[in-house]
Structures are given as C-alpha cells and as structure tokens.
Design a protein that fits this description.
Number of domains: 2
Number of helices: 8
Helix content: 25-40%
Strand order of the largest sheet: 2-1-5-10-8-9
Largest sheet: 6 strands, mixed
Structural class: alpha/beta
CATH class of the largest domain: Alpha Beta
CATH superfamily of the largest domain: Ribosomal protein L4/L1
Number of strands: 10
Length: 268
C-alpha cells in the first residue's frame, strides 16, 4: 500500500494528503555512489591550469658537455650542464635543467590534462534517487547535523502557494512554523576553514540548512537566497551537490506538491 504524506500550508495547517512516491521509501544503500556522483559533478567546474611550455627555457644557456665539441667542459672539474655564455667566452650559471636556479620544472601542470571525472548515466540517476531517499530518513538527516523534532513527518511537503513567496520574511516564517527554527539558528554560525583555503578568498565555512525544491520558480529562489545556508531549486536543476553537499547525503529538504509530481516523472 502506498504511503500517504501530509501537505502543510503556509500557516502549518494540515491541508490534505498526498501519495509519497516510491523513491522516498526504502533503506539508503549506496552512499559510495552518491560520493562518486558528487565528485563527478564538482569536477566539471574545475578550471584548467598549466605553465608556459617555454617556462625556464627562455635563456641563452647552451650545453657544452659533449666530447670533442667547441668549448667542451669535460675533465676540468665542472659539471657538464647547460650554462649561460658570458662575454669573452666565459661560462656562467647553470640554467634550463630542473634542479638549477630559474630552470624548468620536471613535470609541470598541463592545461590539456583531463580534470572532469566521468560517471555513467544510469549510475548518476541511481545516485540522485539515493540522495532523494536520504532526505526522508531521519537518522541520516540527524547524522548530517540538522536539528529536527520527532513530530515532523518526512519527507516534508508544503503546498504550491510557497512557490509564489517573494519576501525572505515569508520563507523564514514558513520554516519556523514547520518546526525548523533551531536548524535555521544553527546555520547562522560560521567556522574558520582549515588549510590554505583561508588565504584564497574562502576563509569561512557556511553551514547548510533547508533546501526547498519547487516545481516552478515564481519568486521563492530570490526570497530564499538571503537566509544563511538555505537555498531553493527547481526539479529541473536539482543536483547531487544540492541534495548531498560535500557528498554527504541527508540534507534537510522541503518539497512542494508540484515538485513531488515532477520528480515522479523525472525519475521514471
């Protein structure tokens, strides 16, 4: 028998029931697949980088270590390496070779290197289903660090009127009425990032809170973006990175009635 879920209105009154699709039922099985799909998705945004192919070679240094060549540097107690030629035929500093000052690198980063990780279409679809399944599992959601009360039925479904919200205040009130006020407060805190990312324009880490999935954006995306750690997305643009930030499933997710119907069609 199909499971029924309650639809909450903007005033948190139980309006009516909806049949929960099968994608939200069952036990989470493939966390490894979610992580792999997440990495593949993130890698598509990596920026190619590389050095100048002539880096370290823009010098007059010449190798004179061949026996019998003009000005050969053999048997004089000097390393046979490419050296700069000074006026008067004097040989100067070593250049070009990787271990010399100002020399080229042995294996520099190359811009033609393939950075994007591939994943099969069926595996990606399976990972998306698993990530959606995790949004209805209370244990997985709490493991991610979200704060939800035991009275909340998962998945959380709201009526389509929420898609028309244009004010941040309206979205905040809706989330608080559902019972997610503590999770919103928690997401306001920021932590200092570990490692060198502190020096690269991303000193703080922002905690994630609710993701609102809608069938059609009628203003709610703009209204949500000013809530720390929260965001809204349409079913069409829904991704693993949004459902499982960092490759860890179980993000606190809210669906509109419209979104539930569109998800069924998308994942058939």
């Amino acid at each position: 028998m199909a499971k029924k879920g309650k639809i909450h209105s903007a005033k948190n009154t139980e309006k009516k029931e909806i049949t929960i699709p099968e994608i939200f039922e069952g036990k989470l099985e493939r966390e490894d697949l979610i992580r792999r799909a997440h990495h593949a998705e993130r890698s598509s945004k990596f920026q190619p980088k590389g050095t100048d192919p002539r880096a370290g070679l823009k010098t007059s240094a010449d190798y004179r270590g061949r026996r019998g060549s003009y000005g050969a540097t053999i048997n004089i107690g000097r390393a046979r390496l490419p050296r700069i030629l000074h006026p008067g035929g004097r040989l100067g500093e070593v250049r070009k070779v990787p271990h010399s000052r100002g020399g080229r690198r042995s294996h520099p980063p190359k811009p033609e290197k393939k950075l994007k990780k591939e994943i099969n279409k069926k595996e990606k679809k399976k990972a998306l289903k698993e990530a959606l399944k995790a949004t209805s599992d209370e244990k997985t959601i709490k493991k991610r660090g979200h704060i939800i009360s035991e009275e909340i039925e998962l998945p959380i479904i709201i009526d389509n009127e929420a898609e028309k919200f244009k004010k941040t205040r309206q979205v905040k009130e809706l989330l608080e009425e559902i019972g997610l006020g503590k999770d919103l407060e928690k997401s306001k805190t920021k932590k200092t990032r570990a490692g060198k990312g502190k020096m690269r324009g991303r000193r703080k880490r922002q905690r994630k809170t609710a993701l609102i999935v809608v069938g059609e954006d009628k203003g709610i995306k703009r209204a949500t973006r000013n809530i720390p750690g929260a965001n809204a997305a349409t079913v069409k643009e829904l991704s693993i990175d949004q459902l499982a930030p960092g490759g860890q499933p179980g993000r606190l997710t809210i669906y509109t009635e419209n979104a539930i119907k569109k998800l069924e069609n998308k994942l058939k």
